[in-house]
Amino acid sequence: MSDKNRIYLFDTTLRDGEQSPGVSLNADEKVEIAQQLARLGVDIIEAGFPIASPGDFAAVKKIADTVKGPVIAGLCRAVKGDIDRTWEALKGAETPRIHTFLATSDIHLKYKLKMSREEVLNQAVEAVRYAKTFCPDVEFSAEDASRSDLDFLAQIVSAVIDAGATVVNLPDTVGYAVPDEFGQFIRTIMEKVPNIDRAILSIHCHDDLGMAVANSLAGILNGARQVETAVNGIGERAGNASLEEIIMALYTRKVFYGKEVNVNYREIYRTSRLVSNLTGMSIQPNKAIVGKNAFAHESGIHQDGVLKERSTYEIMSPELVGLNRSNLVLGKHSGRHAFKERLAELGFVLNDAEFDQAFSDFKEIADKKKEVTDDDLEALIKDYIWKVPERFSLAYLHISSGTTVVPMATVKLSIEGIVFEAAATGDGPVEAACRAVDKITDIYGKMHSYKLNAVSGGKDALGEVISRIEINGIMYNGRGLSTDIIEASVKSYINAINKHFYAEQRQREIQDQ
Ligand code: KIV
Ligand code: ZN
């Protein structure tokens, strides 16, 4: 496939995706996602918005300094201070890109920026020129491009290319466009901008009307060569175009689109799971490509068809996206070898110490459950993904609860080998146990959300609790796993407290340096 038919994947999960209401990732979690995106093979990772907060700055810097392979981009407004700060975060990257933006629609000019078109044009050009003094690769985004005056937009696109922009992005910022119109819009800009061949035209579509992927594909058909996406379609409001849907649409309908991306398809499912686990944003079962039901055939007629010939009802193979389910179930008699083989088939690589710990956790679960399924194993291994050193670990939990008694919990926590005990009451057993934890740790968390998933079917299913806990104004995701849902809840709360404890400790270490 010629270079002209190559589509560049720009992933903004860590920037626009992190703007999803309720999502907040710490620097280590962002690095972990960036590393997985590099494994998947996206071309550009937008690592964050460095001026937004010291935490954002630190995360972009860490990704720039450590993640190799993709271009690392940082977002900034079209002003010097933002550009300086972004460059400061990005400069350690193998291949950095400064991504600067300014709105171009009259509605934004009049009400938000209170600027004339001429002022916006000058500011955009100056910002690109200034960014170029640091970095050869500069992307300019015309915010709200799809609602901008076409002649003015063409003028600004041409001017920023003359100023040195290597990529010009035309976002459908508010998700207002529809496919035919958006395709025509991209075609018109391609035709109206005389120097467009000196830059890559990019698109960035939001999903307010559920058309982000369709609009992006229409843009690609009409000349866009970079597409901006987020894993699982997360992002501001209704989200961004979903990375996995764009990849698989281009792959499955290659003859129609005639375009290609350069990714490791088998990493798609794992990337989706990682982002869902770390953001705490679960994936709807019917979500295309990565939803639990995306490859499940329920109707007898469909099952019969697939058994006879897969292509009757399957347009993509689940194995291609890395969904490698097996009917083999492990149990308490399974040995280290079978356990290791299955983990490898599921794509998990653990170091020796992690493997020993995971095997002993597996045995503990296998003692309580007859069959340990792939879903159970995935849930168990998530403990290593969510890993944080355990300052506080649960040593004992006793609950008394019922319809006519005040729920009461007794909790013992081990702190550096010493066991501390406290008891508390609450509106329910989970609240009682969390209050007892607070008494021991002297850290007071506020629970913002609480999600309980049954990892696999059956009465002995493992319960997985994902909670979002606010401590001193900062949000932490906590995760706990157990066949006992109260224990899973308390473990999830303690996981968030451990994250807080180590985040504070890191902060103190940085200040002392
Ligand atoms: O939606 C949007 O316009 C954006 C830009 C900052 C690229 O996210
Ligand atoms: Zn956006």
Q: Please, could you describe this protein's structure?
A:
It is a single chain. The strands form three sheets. This protein has an eight-stranded parallel barrel, surrounded by seven helices. A three-stranded antiparallel sheet has the order 9-10-11. Strands 12-13-14 form a three-stranded antiparallel sheet. It folds into three domains: 3-279, Alpha-Beta Barrel (TIM Barrel), CATH 3.20.20; 324-385; 392-512, Alpha-isopropylmalate synthase LeuA, regulatory domain (Double Stranded RNA Binding Domain, 2-Layer Sandwich), CATH 3.30.160.270. It contains 17 helices and 14 strands. The chain is globular and about 75 Å long. With 513 residues, it is an alpha/beta fold. Helix 1 runs parallel beside helix 2 and helix 6 crosses helix 7 (179-192). The protein binds 3-methyl-2-oxobutanoic acid (KIV) and zinc ion (ZN). Residues 16, 171, 173, 204, 206, 236 line the site of zinc ion.
Question: What is the gist of this entry?
Answer:
With 513 residues, this protein is α/β, with parallel strands linked by helices. 42% of the residues lie in helices and 19% in strands. It has three domains: 277 residues, TIM Barrel (Alpha-Beta Barrel), CATH 3.20.20; 62 residues; 121 residues, 2-Layer Sandwich (Double Stranded RNA Binding Domain).
Which architecture of the largest domain would the CATH scheme give at its second level?
Answer: Alpha-Beta Barrel
Strand order of the largest sheet: 1-2-3-4-5-6-7-8
Which compounds are bound in this model?
Answer: 3-methyl-2-oxobutanoic acid, zinc ion
Count of the domains: 3
Average predicted local confidence, pLDDT: 92
Give a quick account of the main beta sheet: strands, pairing sense, barrel closure. Answer: 8 strands, parallel, barrel
Low-confidence stretches: none
CATH superfamily of the largest domain: Aldolase class I
- The beta-strand count equals 14
How helical, in percent, are the residues? 40-55%
Distance between the termini: 52 Å
CATH class category name of the largest domain: Alpha Beta
Tell me, what's the shape?
Answer: globular
Structural class: alpha/beta
